[in-house]
Amino acid sequence: DMNRTFPDNVKFRKTADPCLQHTLYNVLVAYGHHNKAVGYCQGMNFIAGYLILITKNEEESFWLLDALIGRILPDYYSPAMLGLKTDQEVLGELVKMKVPAVAELMERHGVMWTLVVSRWFICLFIDILPVETVLRIWDCLFYEGSKIIFRVALTLIKQHQAFILEATNFPDICDKFKQITKGTFVTECHSFMQKIFTDPGSLSMATINKLRETCREKLLSQG
């Protein structure tokens, strides 16, 4: 995964001096020893790489990675990825509550949420949304916790509801979800961040945790 981490970024090229691939390797290996229950999981390379670009410091990147994986996003990057799978199902339940027409469309065409939002959750919107917008989202993520991911996802879906509902088949729905992460709505980061706190309406951690419990039990029962 090292060579696939930000290949277009000059600081991650092997010819760079210093080459951040070495720093990334050090952080990921250190974290694997620190948290043996997780070790290394695909997606962590992008998270750690982004932190390194932001902090320019190995130790700070390591502890921020630890905060994300160990506290803010538990079980996202564990071998079974149960936390990640659970939260994708939770988003589906939240869409049923807040954007029911889109939920009905997904159900009618048999589109699983993991097919359209898994990269949103795994990479925390890296390479999905513009860099400046992602940095703003991450500020809120460290400050307010994982519900920010749901706020961002719900805002994207709610804002583009009419566009998504134009889809008439399975591939079309998947394509719509790729397109809603582009354009001026997401590049104008200040107004976008204001929207994520207004568009989805009330979204308490109590509600999210209750849905998590239900969705986790459902996933475990499915084996």
From TrEMBL:
Q: What does this protein do?
A: May act as a GTPase-activating protein for Rab family protein(s).
Checking Pfam families in the record gives: RabGAP-TBC
Q: Does the keyword Oxidoreductase apply?
A: no
* SMART domains reported for this sequence: TBC (SM00164)
Q: Which residues form a coiled coil?
A: none
Can you give the residue ranges of the Rab-GAP TBC domain?
Answer: 1-145
- State the UniProt keywords alphabetically: GTPase activation
Q: Name one GO molecular function term.
A: small GTPase binding
What is the official name of this protein in its record? Growth hormone-regulated TBC protein 1
* Record has Iron as a keyword: no
